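STRUCTURE:
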């Protein structure tokens, strides 16, 4: 009898070929990992360090007279926050009949792997988005909700440049770093390209054409990300499709370091335990192979104030009246 034998007659094993297919699956415009870079961890659950900001406090008594001891200062406060890389898994059966009847270009094992992978990654993207667009996760002063004529699709009365610069100023006052990354969803970017705030700024430029590069230069950020991926918001299979954008009309400014490291402020990280993998086993009673995709991760905001709120980011909610 097999050591691990879920509902069938065959051993579970890691399928390297299908794992490669799963890892190579295109992200279809998912952007969350650009806000929360992946950090590979050695244990499913553990603690990570959160460093205090004592280094920003000047000392008034750093002069030492000959023959005396230097003034001694307290050490840096270091706290610990936990992560738990919960497993996210889905599986799909591939029946013998499907394999026998499939004509090119259909490939049941590959197609099943890609379908399950897409659902795992969609759930991950939604988790990124939900964490990043929840105002309660941000420090006081690091979020604003627009309303009425202040929304950016209200011509003549809204001022997106002023709103974004206010966000940059608020964030800079918390961590003394400018945001280097901005998430501006496609519906918002589609409005901004015709907004007089921007057109008035670029009309005398060499190429008076709105672009992401010009916008990035205007705000002095390294990267502007324009997510446009959508999904079906219907709850149940078979229900009428209700399509919507994953990232709707919330704009995020963030500092994302070039690489993870100690004492480096970062908007957040995905803590991933192990690798994304595909395993497969035989269930003879069903005349099927089961293909399962698994990814174990936890997503955390990491640059936090004493109240546990985000300081390395700024959130502008509800920028459009039309969504």
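SEQUENCE:
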């Amino acid at each position: 009898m097999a050591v691990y034998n879920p509902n069938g007659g065959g051993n579970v094993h890691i399928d390297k070929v299908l794992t490669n297919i799963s890892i190579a699956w295109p992200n279809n415009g998912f952007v969350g990992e650009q806000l929360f870079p992946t950090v590979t961890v050695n244990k499913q659950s553990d603690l990570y360090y959160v460093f205090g900001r004592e280094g920003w406090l000047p000392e008034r008594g750093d002069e030492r007279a000959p023959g005396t001891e230097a003034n001694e200062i307290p050490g840096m406060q270091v706290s610990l926050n936990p992560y738990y890389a919960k497993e996210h898994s889905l599986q799909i059966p591939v029946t013998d009949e499907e394999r026998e009847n499939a004509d090119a270009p259909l490939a049941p094992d590959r197609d099943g792997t890609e379908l399950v992978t897409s659902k795992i990654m969609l759930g991950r993207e939604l988790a990124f988005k939900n964490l990043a667009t929840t105002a309660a996760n941000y420090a006081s002063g690091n979020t604003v909700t627009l309303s009425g004529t202040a929304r950016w699709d209200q011509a003549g009365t809204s001022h997106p440049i002023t709103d974004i610069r206010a966000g940059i100023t608020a964030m800079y006052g918390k961590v003394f770093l400018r945001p280097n990354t901005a998430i501006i969803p496609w519906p918002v970017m589609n409005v901004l390209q015709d907004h007089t705030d921007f057109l008035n700024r670029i009309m005398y430029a060499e190429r008076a054409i709105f672009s992401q590069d010009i916008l990035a230069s205007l705000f002095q950020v390294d990267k502007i990300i324009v997510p446009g991926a959508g999904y079906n918001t219907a709850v149940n299979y078979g229900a009428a499709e209700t399509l919507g954008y994953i990232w709707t009309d919330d704009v995020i400014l963030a500092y994302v370091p070039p690489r993870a490291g100690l004492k480096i402020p970062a908007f957040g990280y995905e803590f991933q335990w192990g690798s994304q993998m595909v395993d497969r086993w035989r269930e003879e009673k069903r005349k099927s192979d089961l293909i399962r995709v698994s990814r174990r991760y936890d997503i955390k905001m990491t640059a936090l104030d004493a109240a546990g709120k985000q300081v390395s980011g700024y959130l502008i909610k509800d920028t459009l009246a039309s969504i």
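REMARK: The two ends are 57 Å apart (CA to CA).
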